[in-house]
Amino acid sequence: MKNFVLAYDCETTGLPNWKQPSGDPSQPHLVQIAALVANTETRKVIASIDLTVRPDGWEIPQETSDIHGITTDYALSTAYQKPKPTPSL
Questions:
Q1: Which residues span the domain enclosing 28?
Q2: How many other β-carbons are positioned within 10 Å of the β-carbon of residue 11?
Q3: How many separate domains does the chain show?
């Protein structure tokens, strides 16, 4: 029997404001999401995804770009075109 593992990581425009609802405009935006499924016995990667989100009316602050390296200009020029990348995941 094969054993599989899902590993994922994401980058955002900042940290959540836990005192506000998740839909509040002050909440951070998803900038990038990556994931892979691997077989733990063979260590073979079965599937992977790496998506940058296109900013739509918001910018990636310089202080977060300094951490993850994704700028607003980069995201606008290379980003995933659909409005929500999580269904692809």
A1: 4-78
A2: 19
A3: 1
Angle at 34 between CA 31 and CA 37, to 5 degrees: 160
Q: Residue 47 maps to which CATH number?
A: 3.30.420.10
- For residue 10, being part of any structural domain is answered with yes
Task: Dihedral sign for Cα 63, 66, 71, 75, please.
Answer: negative
Helix, strand, or coil (residue 89): coil
Q: What is the pTM of this model?
A: 0.79
Per-residue pLDDT tens over the stretch 1-54: 479 999 999 999 999 999 999 999 889 999 999 999 999 999 999 999 999 999
Residue 79 pLDDT: 81
For residue 87, tell me if it sits in a domain.
no
- R_g over Cα of the chain: 15
